[in-house]
Amino acid sequence: MGQWTFFNHDFLKEEDTKLHFRDLSIQRGYGVFDFFKVINSVPIFLEEHLNRFYFSASQMRLEVHYSKEELKQIIYELLKKNNQTDTGVRITLTGGYSTDGYQISNPNLIIALHSLSFPAPDQFEKGVKLITYEYQRQLAQVKTIDYLMGIWLQSIIKQNNADDVLYHQKEMVSECPRSNFFIVSQNGVLITPSKNILNGVMRSKIIEVAKANFKVEERDLFVDEIKTAREAFITSTTKTILPVKQIDNYMFSSSRPITSVVFRKVLEVQQNFINSTSR
Amino acid sequence: MGQWTFFNHDFLKEEDTKLHFRDLSIQRGYGVFDFFKVINSVPIFLEEHLNRFYFSASQMRLEVHYSKEELKQIIYELLKKNNQTDTGVRITLTGGYSTDGYQISNPNLIIALHSLSFPAPDQFEKGVKLITYEYQRQLAQVKTIDYLMGIWLQSIIKQNNADDVLYHQKEMVSECPRSNFFIVSQNGVLITPSKNILNGVMRSKIIEVAKANFKVEERDLFVDEIKTAREAFITSTTKTILPVKQIDNYMFSSSRPITSVVFRKVLEVQQNFINSTSR
Predict the structure, then answer these.
(1) How far is CA B146 from CA A222, B143, B233, in A?
(2) Does ipTM exceed 0.85?
């Protein structure tokens, strides 16, 4: 590919960007990251993603050697060097080269482009099928690199002809491995879990946008209740909004008036952000 | 250090043993490993460690490209090349270079020496202090690289002047992050949790050894019960057996007759293994 990455202090060729095997990510799965999309050279909601990145790092006691402004400059320079206007960017911070394989060390920082895989154009119409699964992500508010369960569950998802899994603990719903979750109740209220979740940047934007038109509740939400909902959707940086057509055996109507309004509104917010930030 | 490692198909210098940042261990914390000690050039209980390694790999759908016999030959050659008679050996198998950063790919295999850190000589006399913490390791029977919680808890362990943490879920005790757990009841029965644990090789050896002299129960064990026990100890490859002096506020007697017998017996088993395997 010959793309550039940023590694600790230097711009490197992607193929040369490697971690020694004693890094704590490889030894102990210890690290954090964040991921945002770039459209028309504009990193979307960069401020929010960087804030969360610093929060994640601090929760995991990993030092970031750059200020937010410095990271932004590095990101802009990386995009320029790669001559990319539309891409995903991932910032990864690992536990570093640990002498005893257990203590946190001087973190390794990698900033790299990742091609964006948006949902297929007809996916919004078709919707996704979720299956519920009892599991709670550890340190849920921290964007750690721990996707062990999400990846391990791929085969069960496939066996059930599903697209993704919806985690719950003792029937209390949290999120999907890489998305937040919303329902629209029969009387038109948007409800999304408030606890034991990652605070998705897209989730926050959607709550903000939806509040202008609908009642929105962030609160405990149980499996029973989602199976009475009128609409349901999942949200993430790459998906923005994807309607849910089915959860376990419960089928949602293919008419999704409220999801459609919220989707249109959040795309507007995103477009306004691009227009106002372009330079 | 200039030591040799084995990486996929080749013996490499340790400093050249690196993973590209797109490996699924770095991106998603996805990988397994096993670890055993080598004494007088004898890899201790190698068969059991390799069996567990293959079990872990298969549970995580990671293909091992070598048979057990081939792995053994590689390990013996690695020890010889490094001219090491006493060391730790770690076999790590990761999710590989994933194209989309989520699907399992062709695994990367790393076999490397890790210096053994045995407990200090007076640690057996002193014993360790544990604090209980509610947490359940995901895929507990699989030796994954996920030690996120164990490492994250280090600061809480320190704050409590403790040496390690003992996991429980709803008061049901499982294990420490890197050790199995036993108690000796007031009437001299050894009890160790049977569920939601890693099947430690040392744990199995100890159960086997102890059964000759004592009653041993593998069963559910609750926080309440451990705080009535006469003795308690933790077990692992490097620790063999370490007595517990305190759990939360509960103090154990410094007289540990049964722990001492079991410890002496398991050291004998280990020595017999070395004597009978040396060549």
Answers:
(1) 28, 8, 24
(2) yes
